[in-house]
Q: What sequence folds into this?
C-alpha cells in the first residue's frame, strides 16, 4: 500500500515525476546496519519479521545446517545464513548473515519492473513493493543483483522485506531492529549508521580483524541495509554475498537504451511505409497487365 | 464475350493456409500488444486490451506457443518455395527499382520474390528464437530450471527478436497494402492473372506450362 506520509523518489514504469513535494531527506535517508560480528544467530529477527508482517512460512525439515528456512520465500522476508569458515590460524569462525532486501539506492528490481507503481523507492531510501499493482511477471527477480524478491505461489505477486516502511513512516524502527537481543541490528539515518559502523570497525581492527569493514556497495549506489563484516575484503565468505554487486549490464541494456531506440526505430519503420505510399502511390495491376497476362497464358 | 473483360483468377492459397495465416496474424497482433505493454511504460495502457496487466502477463506466453505451433505448420508448407536463387539476389539488388514502381526492370520472380524469401527465413529464425528465449522467462512453469544469467540473457534477446519481428511484420503488412491485389490472395485465396504476370511471372509460367502439359 502507498504511504501518503512518505515522498516517492522513483516509481516503476513511470516516466513522469512521482509525488515528492516534501523535498530531500536529511542524513542520506534511513539505513539499517547489521553487525555480523555481534550476531549470535538466534533468529529473533526472523520471528519479529513474521509477527509484524503477519507471515507464516511452511514448516520445513532440517537439512543438516542451522539455516531455517533454507532460503528467502514469499513468507520469509529475512533469513539467517550460517557459514562455517576456518581461518588461517585453523580456528572456526561462524559467520552469520541476516539476508534480505538491501534497499539499493539504484534498485535493479525497480528498473526492471514493467508495472507502473508496483515498486517504489521512497525519498528516505526504502524500496517497497506495492503488490496491488504487481502483475507477477518476475522481472524484479531478473533485475535484482542480490536474488531477493520471491513470487508467491498463492497469488503470483512478488514479495520482499519492506524495511517495515509502515513502521518507519510513523517514526518506529523495523521489527527486526526492535527485537534484536544483542544490538547487532541498529537503525537510523544512513550517515549515523556509517558513523556507528566506523566505531565498530575501529574496535574490530584492534581485536585483530584487520580487514573489518562496512559493506555499502557502490555498484548499486550504496544500500540502505548495510553490514559490518569481519572480513570486508571477502564478502563471499558470508554465503556468497556479492563483492561488487551491480545491476547486470544485460538488464541495464534491456531496460536502458534498448527502450527508446527500439520504440523509435519501430515508429520510424511504420512512418517510412506510410510516406513511401504518399510518395509513390500504390503498386497496381491494371487492365493492360491483365491483357498481357491473358496473351502470355494463351501462348 | 462478357468473360473477356473480367480478369481470370488463379488459386494462390488453400483455405487451410488462409485460416492458419490469420490465426498467426491475430496471435502476432495480441503478442505485439502485450509484449510492447511490458517493454515500455508508454505502451502499458495496451495491457488493458488483454484484460489488464495480470491477464497480459498470463496470456502472452500461451498465445506465443499457439503462434509458434501455427507458424511452423505454415512455414513447413512454404519451405520448398523459399530457397533463394540468383534471380532473387538480383531482385534484392534492384530494390530501389522495385520501390520506385519500375517493375519492368526487375528480373522475373517465382512464387515468391527475393524480399519475401528473406522475410520467410528471418521469421523462421525469429519465431524459433522467441520461443527459445521465452521459455526461461516463463516464471509460472520454467524459470526455476534456468540460471539467473541465462534468464537475463534470454530476456534481452527476447526483446531484441521481438523488435526485429515487429519491424519485419511492419514491412510485410506494408507490402500487402502497397501491392494492390495481394491481400485477396490471403483473404479469398486467389489472385488475378495480371497480378501474377506483373509480380511473379516465373510462377505464372510454371502454372501455364504445367496445365498445358496436363492437357
A:
Amino acid at each position: 500500500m502507498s504511504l501518503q506520509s512518505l515522498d516517492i523518489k522513483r516509481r516503476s514504469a513511470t516516466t513522469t515525476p512521482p509525488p515528492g513535494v516534501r523535498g530531500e531527506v536529511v542524513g542520506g535517508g534511513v539505513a539499517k546496519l547489521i553487525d555480523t560480528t555481534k550476531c549470535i544467530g538466534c533468529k529473533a529477527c526472523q520471528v519479529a519479521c513474521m509477527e509484524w508482517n503477519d507471515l507464516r512460512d511452511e514448516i520445513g525439515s532440517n537439512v543438516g545446517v542451522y539455516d531455517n528456512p533454507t532460503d528467502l520465500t514469499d513468507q520469509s522476508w529475512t533469513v539467517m545464513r550460517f557459514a562455517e569458515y576456518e581461518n588461517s590460524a585453523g580456528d572456526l569462525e561462524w559467520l552469520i548473515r541476516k539476508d534480505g532486501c538491501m534497499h539499493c539506492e539504484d534498485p535493479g528490481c525497480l528498473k526492471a519492473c514493467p508495472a507502473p507503481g508496483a515498486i517504489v523507492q521512497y525519498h528516505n531510501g526504502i524500496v517497497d513493493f506495492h503488490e496491488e499493482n504487481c502483475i507477477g511477471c518476475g522481472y524484479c527477480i531478473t533485475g535484482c543483483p542480490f536474488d531477493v524478491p520471491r513470487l508467491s505461489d498463492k497469488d503470483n505477486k512478488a514479495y520482499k522485506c519492506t524495511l517495515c516502511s509502515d513502521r518507519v513512516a510513523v517514526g518506529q524502527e523495523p521489527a527486526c531492529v526492535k527485537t534484536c537481543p544483542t544490538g547487532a541490528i541498529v537503525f537510523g539515518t544512513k550517515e549515523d549508521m556509517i558513523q556507528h559502523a566506523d566505531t565498530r570497525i575501529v574496535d574490530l581492527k584492534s581485536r585483530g580483524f584487520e580487514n573489518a569493514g562496512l559493506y555499502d556497495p557502490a555498484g548499486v549506489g550504496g544500500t540502505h541495509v548495510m553490514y559490518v563484516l569481519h572480513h570486508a575484503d571477502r564478502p563471499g565468505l558470508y554465503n556468497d554475498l556479492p563483492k561488487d554487486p551491480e545491476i547486470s549490464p544485460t538488464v541495464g541494456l534491456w531496460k536502458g537504451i534498448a527502450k527508446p531506440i527500439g520504440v523509435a526505430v519501430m515508429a520510424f519503420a511504420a512512418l517510412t511505409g506510410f510516406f513511401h505510399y504518399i510518395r509513390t502511390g500504390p503498386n497496381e495491376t491494371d487492365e493492360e497487365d491483365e491483357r498481357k497476362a491473358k496473351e502470355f497464358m494463351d501462348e | 464475350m462478357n468473360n473477356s473483360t473480367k480478369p481470370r483468377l488463379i488459386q494462390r492459397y488453400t483455405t487451410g493456409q488462409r485460416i492458419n495465416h490469420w490465426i498467426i496474424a491475430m496471435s502476432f497482433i495480441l503478442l505485439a500488444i502485450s509484449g510492447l505493454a511490458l517493454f515500455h511504460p508508454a505502451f502499458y495502457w495496451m495491457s488493458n486490451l488483454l484484460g489488464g496487466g495480470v491477464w497480459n502477463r498470463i496470456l502472452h506466453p500461451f498465445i506465443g506457443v499457439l503462434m509458434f505451433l501455427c507458424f511452423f505448420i505454415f512455414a513447413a508448407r512454404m519451405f520448398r518455395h523459399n530457397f533463394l536463387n540468383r534471380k532473387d539476389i538480383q531482385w534484392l539488388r534492384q530494390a530501389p527499382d522495385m520501390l520506385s514502381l519500375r517493375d519492368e526492370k526487375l528480373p522475373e520472380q517465382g512464387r515468391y520474390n527475393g524480399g519475401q524469401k528473406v522475410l520467410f527465413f528471418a521469421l523462421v529464425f525469429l519465431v524459433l528464437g522467441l520461443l527459445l528465449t521465452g521459455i526461461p522467462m516463463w516464471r509460472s512453469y520454467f524459470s526455476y530450471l534456468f540460471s539467473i544469467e541465462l534468464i537475463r540473457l534470454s530476456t534481452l534477446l527476447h526483446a531484441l527478436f521481438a523488435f526485429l519481428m515487429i519491424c519485419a511484420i511492419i514491412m510485410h503488412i506494408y507490402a500487402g497494402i502497397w501491392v494492390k491485389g495481394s491481400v485477396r490472395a490471403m483473404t479469398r485465396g486467389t489472385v488475378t492473372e495480371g497480378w501474377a504476370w506483373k509480380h511473379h511471372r516465373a510462377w505464372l509460367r510454371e502454372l501455364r506450362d504445367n496445365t498445358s502439359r496436363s492437357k
Q: What stands out?
A: Chain B has one domain: 10-214. The longest strand of chain B covers residues 9-11. Chain B touches chain A through 55 residues (CB under 8 Å). DSSP finds nine helices and two strands in chain B.
